[in-house]
Amino acid sequence: MKVNNFSQAFDKTLKHYGITGKALSNQSGVSQNHISEFRRNAGNISLQTLSSLMMAMDELAPGSSDYFLSQLCHQQQNGSVSLENKLERMIEAATDEEVEGAMLAIARRWRLKSGNNGHGNQVLSA
């Protein structure tokens, strides 16, 4: 997926939830300048940084990362390559640290979606 698609979905999500660049920077540890460049599609972003931003978004506004992903999927419906294929390509190109960050984000999202509060049987543990 083009960075532009990620940037548009990201910016739309922040506006929808009223999340400021400053608040997101404080929560994620990513500089305000880097966030601003990404929102304007003026810079690239690593998978690890995107993962950090998504986790911070959800901490600031629960459900915002789901909204972000839904925006990406909505944009994807107009494209020819599936989101699954694009994610596979991103993962194949990612560093070990980026893959680890993505896996932790997926595990957290799965745990939140499944209603698992850390008790009982868990398949994944973050």
Give a description of the structure:
This protein is mainly α and 126 residues long. It is built from seven helices and no strands. The protein is globular and about 30 Å long. GO terms for molecular function: DNA binding. This is XRE family transcriptional regulator. InterPro entries: Lambda_DNA-bd_dom_sf. It comes from Aetokthonos hydrillicola Thurmond2011.
SSE layout and pairing:
Blueprint: H1 3-17, H2 21-28, H3 32-39, H4 47-60, H5 64-76, H6 83-93, H7 96-114
Helix pairs in contact: 1-5, 2-4, 4-5, 4-7
GO molecular function: DNA binding
Protein name: XRE family transcriptional regulator
Organism: Aetokthonos hydrillicola Thurmond2011
**Terminal CA distance:** 27 Å
- Overall pLDDT, averaged? 82
Contiguous runs where pLDDT drops below 50 for at least 5 residues: 119-126
Helix-strand pattern: HHHHHHH
Report strand %: under 5%
Q: How much helix is in the residues?
A: 55-70%
Radius of gyration from the alpha-carbon trace, in angstroms: 15 Å
| Total number of strands | 0
Overall geometric form: globular
| Number of helical regions | 7
Which structural class best describes the helix and strand composition?
Answer: mainly alpha
Largest sheet: none
Oligomeric form: single chain
Q: Keyphrases for this structure?
A:
single chain, 0% strand, mainly alpha, 126 residues, disordered C terminus
